[in-house]
Amino acid sequence: MSDDIVSVAPREIHDLIQRASRVKGCEASVAEKIASRITFSEVHNGGGINSWLQIAAGEVGALNETFRLSQVLDSIPSENSSSFTWEPPISFALISEPLNLLQSHGFTWSCEPEVTTGESLVEHVYLIEEASANSSTNRKLATAFSEGVQVDKSDWKDLTDIAANFLLSEEILDDAESLLTNE
To answer: Do 85 and 150 meet the contact criterion of CB atoms below 8 Å apart?
Structure first.
């Protein structure tokens, strides 16, 4: 493994993204959903953490607003074909999990421009209801659980630094509890 890559468990990605999203102003349920989407993207496409860092570096409320814009894909369309447009473009990291879910419900999808990683910015998504090809998401997830996910070490450090600002660390909480039991 290269010195600029670190192997982490999917759960670690989820936990840090959730905490860091709270630090950046997201309420608990939004932070949970963002963490789920970014973890999915990191496992299946790569670039999820970097995408989150780019969004979080924006204006106050950028994570909340970007997530809100991604929610258009959270329900199954009533039409046989649909298209969605974002201006400015949206990070693929926030829409890859809903697109995978729609695929499991019989929709095929395509994006403009074509996506390569979670960092890709998407302007348009096209959905067509038809028999979808099986995706390799289960295989990728099994590999991630057994071998970990390879992530950029610098991105991981940046994420860890942001998440460290979430409320109190377990060590502080444990110390506070020990004060109560030593009375």
So the answer is: no
Count CB neighbours of 161 within 10 A.
10
- Residue 44 CB contacts under 8 Å (≥ 6 apart), including other chains: 96, 100, 137, 140, 141
Q: What tens digit of pLDDT does each residue of 96-127 get?
A: 999 999 998 889 999 999 998 999 999 999 99
**All residues at 6 or more sequence positions from 131 whose CB lies less than 8 Å from its CB, including other chains:** 106
Q: Model-level pTM?
A: 0.84
Strands 107-112 and 149-152: unpaired
SS3 25: coil
Q: Determine the 3-state secondary structure of 73 from DSSP.
A: helix
Is residue 111 within 8 Å of residue 124, measured between CB atoms? Answer: yes
CB-CB contact of 43 with 78 (8 Å): no
Contact 64, 58 (CB under 8 A): no
Instruction: Give the number of residues written for the chain.
Output: 183
